[in-house]
Amino acid sequence: MDAWFFWKSLSIGLAVAAPVGPMSLLCIHRTLDYGQGAGLVFGAGVAAADLTYAAIAAFGVTAVSSVLLAGTFWVKLVGSLLLVVLGLRIALAKPRSDNGPVSAGSSRRAFITAYGLTMANPPTILFFAGIFASVASIASASQSAAFAAGVFAGSMLWWVILTTLVSKSAAAFQPLTLLWINRTSGAVLAAFAIHGLATLA
Fold first, then answer.
1. At what angle do helices 124-135 and 62-70 cross, to 10 degrees?
2. Burial group, residue 170, by CB count within 10 angstroms (0-12, 13-18, 19+)
3. What is the value of pTM for the model shown?
């Protein structure tokens, strides 16, 4: 039963991660600049945040969810401003000519950035709570763990698929194409951020 529930939860995690948004654009940019391994580190940060929200929903940690939702305004403000900065940096950046090794510090910052930006959307917990309520009632701690683990595995599966596709096709991109990918991605990220700031207003 728990194994079946895990696979069901894996499909939920895949569905949560797959829609193209700012996290996907940032992951694509990092993969193009530093290779698949660097992209996977960024994706792992997103998946870790998905795991956090899934665990909060599955284990019914209402106190934590209340604190997160109470700080929605400031968390979303900080997240949107950070997206603006990242968008501008990417739009103005020149494509790297190689996929050289990434330092441990850089990988750590990428993971934390991905985790923080994903966590900067508190209403996500409502999404997980809604999914949890619709798929089944979790009757045991083992099922709660299976749900959280399945969501994490599904999210990571998406980042493996995405970074593999990007890294395999990266060699075909000319420098000018990569430059326009940077500019377009940066502009889209800034647009996401501006939309977030507009909703706060």
1. 140
2. middle
3. 0.79
